[in-house]
Amino acid sequence: MTTGLVAGVCGLYQHTIMRGLARTDDRTFVSAFQAIDRAIMNAWFMIGFMGALVFTGLATVLHLAQDVRSVLPWLIVAFALYLVTFGLTMAVNVPLNEAIKAAGDPAGIADLGEVRHEFNEAKWTAYNLVRTITTAVAFGVLCWALVISGSAD
């Protein structure tokens, strides 16, 4: 469930939030992105984001000792895909998010166009597309593992 929720968040950013923000002026972009990034950092999001990694990893480890290991390869694939999502988030998207927030209050920024340019929307969005794909596929793989698990009885 947590992996599916994260796939939804990444997808929502990809097809709605970033597309909408791309159509705004520099002040609106910087202000809105800062506000959205501050708002997403909450317990609900973190439970999903960290939970997907922990729960998929735990499911994988717990299936190492099972007699029926037919789901193990699928769990490993899902975990690896989510690990890619997690790694990209920490290596690319979070640093870009932090940089735009560090620019400060948009009302006090002299060159909002430069802040937006330095943020690099194209890079953020490209890496988010990869995160969207990896989490969606990981969720699909986990669903398949559940189907296999149910038919293994």
From TrEMBL:
Domain of life of the source: Bacteria
Pfam family, one: Anthrone_oxy
Family annotation (InterPro entries): Anthrone_oxy
Protein name: DUF1772 domain-containing protein
Organism: Nonomuraea phyllanthi
